[in-house]
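Pasting as-is:
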Amino acid sequence: MDSVQVPEGVPSFDLIGGAPRQTRQRLALLDVREGLALYRLAYALGWLDIKLRYRGSVLGPFWLTLSTAIMVLSMGVLYAELFHMILSHYLPFLALSLVLWNALSGMVTEAGVCFTTAEGTIRSMRMPFTVHAARAVIRNILVLAHNALVFVGVFAWFNVWPHPAMLGPVAFGLLLWILDSFAICVLLGAFCARFRDIPPIIASLMQIAFFLTPIIWKPELIGARAVYLVANPFYPLLAVMRDPLLNANPGHLIWATAVGWSVLLWIGAWLLFVRVRGRLAFWV
């Protein structure tokens, strides 16, 4: 088929979407700007999700905190013995790793359904799609805040606290996590709205990634081959949060890789959102 020649001075059209590319980019940018302006609404919806999820429960979201604490204690004692590590060194590492991984894994898993679970709202009222992405991000941040009590308790028990100089890298790592979480919601939310078989696949892949990422085992256990861990996109993002809290410097390679993976994620999310934003209401 011959390619279509667009006359000079005429806006380039997407032959599938039907709208000019410039128009779709402008609408996508407006959606992001309006969605960020409605952060209070996103926070209220995210908090409402937490309340509804644990409605009628005595401990509420702290049930998840309690289960995480039990898992950390049982796995810590077992794997410290298996790996021949000192418990006071290994348990803070494991507690922090499991809490951060649960937040990261939960964010990726829920990102795939952030639009489909808001089907009724999307079809009944006009609202920026990015509000639903921000809602999922805030919901998981609130869960992370509850679960943070686990590693705070472990740090207090062994009296190991991050140095004040490490709070800056931790804050930057947290900002990177928030931006990545928003981007992954936009990317996977749109993709999974079109292909409903993807969320179960994502859940299975996250289970595999759990064992391939240094969470229950330390990177130094694999020796010189630890340098190849940067090919795992989850490891740099985990390390930039975990290492400073353990008074360790992730290194320039880890930081550069984390930022590099994040930039690729942001670009992919933006290109897909611009492309399919006008069809999301029909897909959900």
